[in-house]
Structures are given as structure tokens and as C-alpha cells.
Amino acid sequence: MKVPSLPARYTVRAILGAGGSGRVYSVHDSIRDLELALKLVSPGESAWLRREFDTLRQIRHENLIQVFDWGSLPSGGAYYTMELIEGGDWGTHMGVPQSVEQVRKILTGILRALAHLHSHREIHGDLKPGNILLGRGGVVKVVDVGMGGTVGEGIGSAGTPGYVAPEVWQGSNGDEKSDLHSVAVLAYEALVGKHPFAGRTVRDVVSGQLEGWVPSPSVHGIQMPPDIERAVMRAIDRSPALRHKYADEMMDDLGITDRAGEILGGKIVARDQQLAELEATCSGAGWKGRGRSGPSAGRGGECYFNAH
């Protein structure tokens, strides 16, 4: 293993993964005294990495990977450190049908993360098995956030063939519906054990997304509750107008009730009725915002939970 030149505080333990322009290492941080993951990219990708780091630093949630420190190298490369999740990514489980309950648990974590990300008008843009980490004790973490940019101001054709929504291949900016299409592809692949847009070449895969027909899981002999099948087939539709609009709506169809997760700092984002109830509680009970779980009134009358 070729060890990169990093600040002395980091001791490289192993390489966890590598792509065209970057690598991820497990390291020990002597200042924090923690075992962490360190993502390192070449100079040409440093601006992308900075955006990703800033997004994850500002929009924190228990199902989004937690980041710690940013650094630049004399070579022009850049890196950041993040929590180390031991257990691998969802891709190691693909290829065989997975149980409905196991898939629903993983989708719960993904959709929680997306609901929080989307509430800040950020699109993931590259949801795929390798970007879903599965840790011990049922931990689900979404990584590589920020490829899709801000809602309405996306970066065009980005993402991975077979997972990115067809309208993005056609030049549209990604939005909430395009992320949910990617979630449906993941769900289908996990439940059926086969990718819905399999092909020998990238052209075959993209052509299948743009023009092909996706058979329902039952065609493959996979039995599951009808509501799960309907939710997946709705979100995987080529037409954005026929998909779920929001992650909350998809969670409704999947029968997911444990939705919020822990927001690690920042404001709670909920639907109008929930916000109204929370605001009434804040004003009626006279909360002062003390402690981890006490709501308080923010600027503009917003209610949020402190997370110190």
C-alpha cells in the first residue's frame, strides 16, 4: 500500500476504497484520539470535495456521515476526515434477494437522510449501493453528499448510470424526485436480487432507463406486501410527475413510521401541521431552549431543538 503524505497527526491503517481521482483510508487521528476514515482527492477534485465537506458539516443528521476536519496538501490535493463505519457498503449485499424487513430498515435510514437534506434544498445526486454504508447494530449512513447541488441550481448530468434518474441524463437538473428514483432502483435491486436496468454497456443501461420497461418484482417470482411493491414501482417510473414528490410521501407508502432520526444540530424540519403543533408548544409552555432536547423559539418564530 502506498501511504500518502499526510500531516503527522494521521497514521494510515489501511486503504478502504479507491476511485478514479481519490482514495479513502482508515487512519488514527492522534489529536482527536479516534479511528477515522480519511477521503483524499487529486487537485482537480478538491473543489468538489470542499463542497461535500461543507454540506455535511452544515447539514447534520444521524443517517448522514459525520465529518470532522478539512485539509489541503502542498500537491494541491485535499482531504477530510469522517467517522469510520465498520461493516461495508450496501453493494456487498446486492446480487441476491434481501428480506423485505431488512430492506425497509435500510430505506428508513436513507429516506430520513434525504428528507433532512432536501429540507435544506440540497440534492444528493449519486445514490448507489457504494454510497450507503451499513454499520454494526443496524447503522445506515449516506455518504458522498453534494453531487446534485442545490434544488433548481443543479450541476447537470452527474451520478452513476443505472441509478441516476433518466431526466438527469436528458439534461435536467436533479431534484427530490430524481433522488427518490435512485432510492427505488436501490430498493428494487435489493428486493429482487437483480438490477432493473441491467446491460452489458453503459449505453445499454441508459437506454433501458430512457426507453425500457421495468417488470414488477412479482414477475421475478419475488413475493412482498403489495404496498411495498407499489411504492417501489411508483418511484422508479420514468416520468417524474408520477413519482413521490417528497421523501416523507415515499415513507408513507412504504409504511415507515419512525421518520425523524436524530438531527445533530440545526432546526427540525417537519410538515405544516407538525410545525404548527411544535410552535404552539414552544410559545405556550414558555421554553427557554435549555439542554439537548428543549425546543426554543428561533428568529422568525421558528421552533427548533438545541443539540449541544
What does this structure look like?
Residues 266-275 and 285-308 have low confidence and may be disordered. α2 packs antiparallel against α7 and α4 crosses α6. Helices cover 31% and strands 16% of the residues. It has 308 residues and is α+β, with helices and mostly antiparallel strands. The protein starts with 9 loop residues before the first strand and ends with a strand. The chain has a five-stranded antiparallel β-sheet with strand order 1-2-3-5-4, covered by helices on one side. It has a two-stranded antiparallel ribbon with strand order 6-7. Strands 8-9 form a two-stranded antiparallel sheet. The protein has three domains: 10-83, Phosphorylase Kinase, domain 1 (2-Layer Sandwich), CATH 3.30.200.20; 90-254, Transferase(Phosphotransferase) domain 1 (Transferase(Phosphotransferase), domain 1), CATH 1.10.510; 272-305, no CATH class. The protein has eight helices and nine strands. The longest helix is centred in the middle third of the chain and has 20 residues, at 100-119.
Give the structure's gist in a few sentences:
The protein has helices at residues 46-58, 100-119, 166-169, 176-192, 202-211, 226-235, 247-254, 272-285, and strands at 10-18, 22-29, 34-41, 67-72, 78-83, 132-134, 140-142, 295-297, 303-305. The protein contains 8 helices and 9 strands.
Supply the CATH superfamily name of the largest domain: Transferase(Phosphotransferase) domain 1
Alpha plus pi helix count: 8
Percentage of residues in DSSP E strands: 15-25%
CATH architecture call of the largest domain? Orthogonal Bundle
One letter per element, helices H and strands E, the order comes to: EEEHEEHEEHHHHHHEE
State the separation between the terminal residues, measured CA to CA.
40 Å
Q: What about the largest sheet?
A: 5 strands, antiparallel
CATH domain class name of the largest domain: Mainly Alpha
The main sheet orders its strands as 1-2-3-5-4
Mean pLDDT: 83
Domains, number: 3
- Low-confidence sequence ranges: 266-275, 285-308
Q: Structural class per helix/strand content?
A: alpha+beta
Radius of gyration from CA coordinates: 20 Å
Structural shape: globular
CATH topology-level name of the largest domain: Transferase(Phosphotransferase), domain 1
The count of DSSP E runs of length 2 or more, i.e. the number of strands, is 9
